Amino acid sequence: MKNRIGLFLKIVIYMLFISILTGCWSRHELDEFSIVAGMGIDKSEEDGEIQLTAQIVKPRALKPGEGSSSPEDAYFNIESTGDTVFTAVREFTHGATRKLYFPHNQVIIFSRNTAEEGVQKYIDFFVRDPETRLTVWILVAKDKADELLEIKSELELIPALEISDLVEAQKATSQSSIVKLQHFITRLLSKTTSPVAPLIEVSGKEKKAFVSGTAVFKKDKLTGELDKTETRGLLWVIGEIKSGIIDVDCPGGGKASLEIIRASSKITPKIKDGRIHMKIEIKEEGNLGSQSCLEDLTLPPKVDFLEKEKEAVIRSEVMAALKKARKLNTDIFGFGEAVHQKYRKEWKELEDRWDEVFPNIEVEVIVEAKLRRTGRITRPASTEKE
Question: How far is the C-alpha of 238 from the C-alpha of 195, rounded, in Å?
């Protein structure tokens, strides 16, 4: 934890030193800034206004051997309201003695009601302002955004860093989308591909955060959500599976847990007789992580069985995502962009009525899964024989 905080501070200090060494015209000192670690966007109680919550780092409290290292001393949250994000940011000057500094912001969290209303008018500032990084994480709160910046941090002194780590950790299961600002904007600017973002909420008496699925947008408005199974189905299709576990049945009963090591996908559109056919090819390789059955799963027939079971699970997850996407009528897979790239002439006629076309696309899912390794043992660690 101290190493991460120390690295965070070193980066800030080094960047400021660089700006100082380049000349005096635009020189800024560290004590002139309030370093923002997280931003929350909620609707204000005043009609038509928004409430911004900024989480500010207290560098002195994070230095080893100086001051306290309790979470209360490591950061503080300030709020402001305004008609626009830019106005609300300027309003922070009434409660903060230093100018807000955004290059080290980790997360931008939209409340559910702002997401349902439409995020374009809120997100414009973060794309337009040169200080804001395009690699900041975008999230949607199940309820209010400001309460997420008050969560109990277990491993970090700053909640925004804890949330950032939580988002990164989703790669281990691939059951939640993880979306940076630049990728969210790319989808938002597309005429057909719907934006997605991880859903995050506060749970329990201890107020801990956890990711609970994927928010799905129609243009810039939240229209629905994917559960964990549907989310992984989406990630299979768009080639963003990083890792994860697939539980399948052993041939004779019991369960085997198969770890995803690598995966890839290919989307190929075809137009025939006026109908669009989409072929999705998914290739996956994995290892045997554990088994509760007593069989020797390294025997070729058993390996073949497990691979077929794994292919069936992957296919079912993709179909679950496709079913939900059709229900919401949201092209979260980028099918429209694939058609656009291959059939530019036909696309001119399809583009404006894509909402009518998308739910009726014929989809073929082809999965090839391989089981590569079984770990340090072959047979299960048991004295009983199969």
Answer: 13
| Spatial contact of 276 and 269, defined as CB atoms under 8 Å apart | yes
Average pLDDT rounded to a whole number, residues 329-347: 96
d(CA 270, CA 132): 40
What is the CB-side half-sphere exposure of residue 327 using CA atoms within 13 A?
12
The phi, psi pair for 366, rounded to 5°, reads -115, 125
pTM: 0.87
What distance in Å separates the CA atoms of residue 55 and residue 147, rounded to the nearest whole number?
A: 11
Parallel/antiparallel/unpaired status of strands 208-218 and 137-141: unpaired
Distance from C-alpha of 72 to C-alpha of 61, rounded to nearest angstrom:
10
Q: What pLDDT sits at residue 22?
A: 45
**What is the model's pLDDT at position 97?**
72
DSSP class per residue in 93-112: GGT-SSEEE-TT--EEEE-H
Mean pLDDT in residue range 335-357: 95
Q: What is the pLDDT of residues 238-291, one digit of tens each?
A: 999 999 999 999 998 899 999 999 999 999 999 998 899 999 999 999 999 999
Supply the pLDDT for residue 152.
83
Q: How many CA atoms lie within 13 A of 150 on its CB side?
A: 12
Which pLDDT score is estimated for 384?
Answer: 60
> Which pair of structure tokens corresponds to residue 217?
């947008």
Residue-wise DSSP of 315-339: HHHHHHHHHHHHHHT-B-S-HHHHH
Taking residue 95's Cβ as centre, other Cβ atoms within 10 Å add up to 10
**Could you give the CA distance from residue 169 to residue 232 in angstroms, rounded to a whole number?**
15
Which DSSP string do the residues of 202-251 spell out, in sequence order? EETTTTEEEEEEEEEEETTEEEEEE-HHHHHHHHHHHT-----EEEEE-T
* pLDDT tens track for 180-197: 999 999 999 999 999 999
Cα of 259 vs its chain's centroid, Å: 21
